[in-house]
Design goal:
The complex is a heterodimer of chains A (280) and B (430).
Chain A (H helix, E strand, L loop, with lengths): L1 H21 L20 H6 L19 E2 L8 H13 L5 H5 L4 H11 L4 H5 L11 H5 L4 H15 E2 L20 H14 L14 E6 L11 E2 L6 H16 L11 H4 L1 E6 L2 H5 L1
Parallel strand pairs in A: 1-2
Antiparallel strand pairs in A: 3-4, 3-5
Helix pairs in contact in A: 9-10
Chain B lengths: L1 H9 L10 E5 L7 E4 L4 E3 L3 H18 L2 E3 L18 H6 L4 E10 L2 E10 L4 E11 L3 H17 L8 E8 L6 E8 L6 E2 L7 E6 L5 E9 L1 E8 L5 E3 L6 E7 L5 E8 L2 E8 L5 E3 L7 E6 L5 E6 L6 E6 L5 E3 L6 E7 L6 E7 L2 E7 L7 E6 L2 E6 L5 E6 L8 E6 L6 E3 L4 E7 L5
Parallel strand pairs in B: 2-4, 2-5, 3-5
Antiparallel strand pairs in B: 5-6, 6-7, 8-9, 8-31, 9-10, 11-12, 12-13, 13-14, 15-16, 16-17, 17-18, 19-20, 20-21, 21-22, 23-24, 24-25, 25-26, 27-28, 28-29, 29-30
Helix pairs in contact in B: 2-4
The chains are: A mainly alpha (280), B mainly beta (430).
Chain lengths: 280, 430
Amino acid sequence: MRTAYTISAIGHAAVLLWSVWSLAAKPLPVSSNEGLPVDLVTASDFSNITAGSKAAPKTDTAKPLVEKVAEAKPVEDPTAKVVEKKEVQAAREPPPAPETKPAEAAPDKKQAETKKQEPKKAEAKPPIPPKKPAPPAPKFDPKQVAALLDKREATRLAAAGETLNNAPSLGVSNGAAAQLSLSELDALRARLAQLWTVPAGAKDPQELVVLIRIKLKRDGTLAAPPMVLTSGKTPLFIAARDSAVRALFRGQPYDMLKPEHYEQWKDVEITFDPRDMIRG
Amino acid sequence: MLGGAASAFASLSPQPAAAVLKLNVTEGNVQPVPIAIPDFVGVGLDPATGRNVSQIIASNLRRSGLFAPIDQAAYIEKIVTIDTLPRFPDWRQINAQALVTGRITQSDARLKAEFRLWDVFAGQQLRGEQYNTTADNWRRIAHIISDAIYERITGDKGYFDTRIVFVDESGPKERRIKRLALMDQDGANVRYLTRGDDLVLTPRFSSAADTITYMSYREGDPKVYLMNIETGQREIVSNFPGMTFSPRFSPDGQRVIFSLQRGGSSNLFVMDLRSKATMRLTDTQVIDTAPSYSPDGTRISFESDRGGKQQIYVMAATGGEAQRISFGEGAYSTPVWSPRGDYIAFTKQTEGKFAIGIMRADGSGERILTEGYHNEGPTWAPNGRVIMFFRDPGGNAGPMLYTVDVTGRNEQILKTPSYASDPAWSPLLQ
């Protein structure tokens, strides 16, 4: 009996030992890989990705850089323009320069100015080189504001051309950055369905289809009374139209539409179509 | 709904040209429109009249099932004049979508009634009208205003300024006294047209609403009569040998169509009321009865057992080949063409149950509106949206009048002084 115990004990110990050795946990090496960035792309995002191809023929993208339709102006020598302006506005005020200069230059300049008023520059050049300090001075001169305004006008003229820029630029309403979600649309539709009273039992349901355009403010209220785009004269149509307009008034504010998507829902066209309901 | 979702989804895709978001709403509610009807302002008369008028309007609109008049206790603004704009925010707050303001002015025996219907949420007037009438006509004024409101909001003609002619039934079940009676569509102003000496059945209005045709046993055999409901004058339509029954006017009111029974068969005849010329429309050995004209007068629907069981048939108004349009289980009877022409109402009998239903003139779109132990005798409101019928619960009780919407909703009982059957709805009064 004792031998049996001993054998059993030794056997168990052996199995235990073997398992300690063979089943010992090996250190699991952790590879220090960087996290793989994963982006969830919704179907609508995906469909909004514009596919591009390097092999595609080059298209002329220079033209649509214009925001205002105007006669295309021949681009004149831009430098000439600038010079001309300086002549008119900035260069007329070089008195600061003489002021900073020593008195010795004064007599010469005065003489020159009295003799010829226009060719100031030409005259001023020969006497002394210290002409250089003059440009920085007008920069800080408050009277220079007029010159700055002139500059702005010049760029505006340059932006006018024969074709409008119809390519969306940053932040334009249909940019894919902030996308109106289906749930927002569904909530809007649900609210309208709840408020819109369908004239059930009407004989000519096709007369009940009403198309309405609404402009919304950022807070979800109507910016203007709803605009009815379908027209009709039958009492049935008029009743349906008014019923839809009433629903739009009553639905305010449309707070299910998120402000960050405002660009997309500021202008909505809604078709009220009860035909399916009435048929059933 | 799916279509709406699809188009809404489509609108999510970039649209460079238009930045307008498009949305389809294909479902709405069929909730009654909440409407506020404050008491009409009374000038030179008992203020109760102003209240009565507004209450009749409210009750009419409520019965239609399409409006929910708001309890006056909830009103914030008290209307004292109809010449200024109401305070719309006050009415919006109690959720009224429409508001009716009105004024009744009495001078001598003349009444002037004015009303305005306002769209509370749009803040504008939808309708404003005035009527002049005699002082005892204030009830009709209320009905006419109800019609104007109903029409402006639902787009369908109203049916409140109408009357019902029916068979008033009084006395114990074994010895019922049946009298022709006339009342306003809301059950008011009941007036009896016959004394109850003879059995009367199936009264029907002419398009002029001042004449009825009906069947009476006055001469022993059932005959078709005409009666002017204003003068009480009556006249027998057809003095043929045999029974004439189931009369109905043509839409122009110039002819009466009816059944004439001789021997075991009954056929359809039409009589020109001016020339008294009678024309036979069917010639069968079976029972053709319950004829009803289409609103344009070109076709006739009727019931016939030529196929074995009672079914509904349609044929040209001049007779000729008839086409069976009812094919469901059971027996179909009393077809009545809707005044707007889209449906034919009928009574359908299956396994001891009587139902009121509608189907299109080609037999499609059959729909049962109400069903029970005994429902019979459908008649259309002039706008084709409501059907009145009578229901007999059986036992010792008698028949009562009910209305139901053509959609099957809004079933309502119409209170009458005693039991009532065989209603017929008049056209809009002139």
